Amino acid sequence: MLTIFPEMFPGPLGLSLAGRALEDGIWSIAAVDIRGFATDKHRNVDDSPFGGGAGMVMRPDVLDAAIRGTEGPGPLVYMTPRGRKLDQALVRELAAGPGVKVLCGRFEGVDQRVLEAHRALEVSAGDFVLSGGEPAALLMLDAIVRLLPGVVGKQESLAEESFEWGLLEYPHYTRPQVWEGRPVPEVLLSGHHEKISTWRKRQAEDITRLRRPDLWDRYVAASKVSEG
Ligand code: SAH
User: Fold this and answer.
1) Atom of ligand 1 nearest to the CA of 125
2) Ligand 1 pocket, CB under 6 A
3) Which residue has the CA at smallest separation from atom 3 of ligand 1?
4) Are 131 and 104 in contact (CB under 8 A)?
5) Most buried of 5, 102, 116, 186, CB within 10 angstroms?
């Protein structure tokens, strides 16, 4: 993790499932302070943009030194709204790899040349603008870490989740059986596993069709292919 705010890590990833896995050594994180690689006496990491305009840009020489000075396998990932939007497919790919070196931008962003020189994989948390890459990096790492073997107890609880079938998740219910006059769907009390799983699949399909026509179209196309 390359950042000017190393105190932000592991942050929320030090708690709960990811935190336990971190203690157990299933994954590890090194938060490297980019400022440690600045060469002037004020430890500046940014400068004004060529061409003018508001804001500051992170310097390529300082970033390059920080990237080179940081051990660890895996691709350099730069968090940016301009990147490939993070999705479960990319999360799975990164979780299967040897690790990641994540560059968190601040200010207006980073000098383009350092991204090119290191062939950075640019990843976006979504179509909105954060004040820095750190929250986006935490989000991405959370999604990666929970896929690592031994982090989530029951592997089945991963298999049935949103996106793993290309569908959004069906609704969940727990006790009380009737809450404020609202009963849980009858079928879930039946003990009939096949009926329950058919009902859940149907619910997942309905909610996906309504909320995410983009996912639905892909799902329909994929089902046609698998049916031959
Ligand atoms: N000038 C940039 C925004 C800068 S925000 C633009 O218009 O696109 C400052 C930093 O926050 C960026 O360098 C980037 O590292 C990070 N960031 C902001 N929004 C993000 C997002 N949606 N996903 C990932 N990183 C983001």
Assistant:
1) 23
2) 79-82, 104-106, 108-109, 124-126, 128-130, 132-133, 136
3) 108
4) no
5) 102
Distance (Å, whole) CA 137 – CA 126: 12
| Residue whose CA lies nearest to ligand 1 atom number 21 | 81
The tokens describing 96, both together, are 């299967």
187: Cβ contacts below 8 Å, ≥ 6 apart: 195, 196, 199
Rounded to two decimals, the pTM is 0.94
Q: What is the pLDDT of residues 104-131, one digit of tens each?
A: 999 999 999 999 999 999 999 999 999 9
For residue 223, the CA-to-ligand 1 centroid distance in Å is: 36
Q: What is the dihedral of CA 6, 12, 14, 15, to 10 degrees?
A: 170
Which residue's C-alpha comes closest to atom 8 of ligand 1?
Answer: 81
End-to-end Cα, the chain, rounded Å:
45
